[in-house]
Automatic annotation (TrEMBL):
Record-linked SMART domains: PUA
InterPro entries: MCT-1/Tma20, Pre-PUA, PUA, PUA-like_sf, Uncharacterised_CHP00451
Pfam family, one: Pre-PUA
GO MF term set: RNA binding
GO biological process, one term: formation of translation preinitiation complex
High-level lineage: Eukaryota, Fungi, Dikarya, Ascomycota, Pezizomycotina
Organism: Westerdykella ornata
Entry's transmembrane regions: none
PANTHER family associated with the record: MALIGNANT T-CELL-AMPLIFIED SEQUENCE 1, MCT-1 PROTEIN
Descriptive protein name: Translation machinery-associated protein 20
Function: Involved in translation.
């Protein structure tokens, strides 16, 4: 979605009623963010809406990007927010071989998640329970981590459920919404 550098369009202030609606939507989509919601979206601070190309809306607090949304799609967290609160989102892990494809904006394929270095929910090798116990359905927003790396490298939307991935072991698994080094990552809001 953001393969090329992008220039921010018009910036406008979000009405307080719309701000409350966004806050409620964030809590509905990401219930694990509830303890931090006052840090992320303080009630008294002004939320801004920055228009981006291809009908994408970016919600920011000052010069801090928080969430973005393509038309009426789900709100996706910006990677800066994911890096600050990594345990608040559904996570999956790709193997080392898939990293370069993800960082070039390719759609994530199932083998990157089902191979020995990848991790899906209920993985017997996931002793810490980092990747969760419940299977994820298509359309869920997920954060993609990379084998051997500390921070998440991509936020996307599942095209295939995790249970189906384990069985099929091929096909398109996750559509890239935003990844490290893309136009949204490099966007200057200062």
């Amino acid at each position: 979605m953001f393969k090329k550098d992008i220039t921010p369009g018009a910036k406008s202030k979000v009405k307080s009623s719309a701000q409350r609606a966004i806050r409620a939507k964030v809590l509905e989509q990401y219930p694990l963010l509830e303890p931090y919601i006052d840090d992320i979206l303080p009630k008294k601070d002004q939320l801004d809406l920055v228009k981006l190309p291809d009908r994408v809306s970016l919600y920011t607090l000052g010069s801090t990007p928080l969430f973005f949304q393509h038309m009426d799609d789900p709100l996706l967290p910006h990677l800066a927010l994911v890096h600050k609160y990594p345990d608040c989102f559904h996570r999956l892990r790709i193997d080392r071989g898939a990293i370069r494809f993800v960082l070039s904006g390719a759609t994530l394929m199932a083998p990157g998640l089902t191979s020995p270095g990848g991790r899906l929910p209920n993985d017997p090798e996931d002793e810490e329970g980092r990747y969760g116990k419940e299977e994820l359905a298509p359309g869920e927003v997920v954060v993609i981590e990379a084998e051997g790396k500390e921070n998440a490298c991509m936020v996307g939307v599942l095209k295939m459920g995790t249970e189906e991935m384990k069985k099929a072991k091929k096909g398109q698994a996750c559509e890239a919404g935003h990844y490290l080094g893309d136009g949204l990552w490099g966007l200057s809001l200062g």
